[in-house]
Amino acid sequence: MKVSDVMTRDVVLAHPNQTICDAAKMMAESDAGALPVGENDRLVGVITDRDIAVRAVAKHLSPDTPVREIMSSQVLYCYEDEDIERVAQNMGGNQVRRLAVLNRDKRLVGIVSIGDVSHGVPPRVAGQAIADISKPGGSNSQTRH
């Protein structure tokens, strides 16, 4: 099974100059916990609901704070034609719950979550990926920026 079989295609894109309040509203309207951030036709980051809580609210930042100040600038992605099992292992290894999905022209075509992926892989693979993602610390810890 390929990523394109399980990914979400309707992706809302935030801009780095938008406020975190705007990003939170966009998340609420699209029922999403993460938004890719794009500028000049390039992915430049991702912002999650947890970024807003930990990197902004917990530090008493204004709702008018630009997305770029709290987003993760490391953009991890997979390709739409990749095998889901490989992507599940990649997510576990990188301790991420979501990945941007690109086509081979490196254009954003969707987003895939560990929940999406878990429906297309054997239970042991999904379980291992979730266990790896859930390990404390790691390079994507919220306390690092």
Structure description:
By secondary structure, the protein is of the alpha+beta class. It has one domain: Roll (CBS-domain), CATH 3.10.580.10. Helices cover 32% and strands 19% of the residues. It is built from five helices and five strands. The strands form two sheets. Strands 3-4-5 form a three-stranded mixed sheet. A two-stranded antiparallel sheet has the order 1-2. β1 and β2 form a beta hairpin. The longest helix is centred in the N-terminal third of the chain and has 11 residues. The chain is globular, with a radius of gyration of 15 Å. The mean pLDDT is 91.
Task: Summarize the entry for a quick read.
The chain contains five helices and five strands; from the N terminus they run αββαβαββαα. By secondary structure, the chain is of the alpha+beta class.
Give a quick set of tags describing it.
CBS-domain; alpha+beta; single chain; three-stranded mixed beta sheet; 5 helices; two-stranded antiparallel ribbon; 5 strands; 19% strand; 145 residues
Class in CATH?
Answer: Alpha Beta
Alpha-beta content class: alpha+beta
Shape: globular
Major beta sheet, strand line-up = 3-4-5
User: Can you give the mean pLDDT?
Assistant: 91
**How would you name the oligomeric state of the polypeptide chains in this document?**
single chain
Order of helices and strands: HEEHEHEEHH
Number of domain modules: 1
CATH architecture term = Roll
- Separate helix tally: 5
Helical proportion?
25-40%
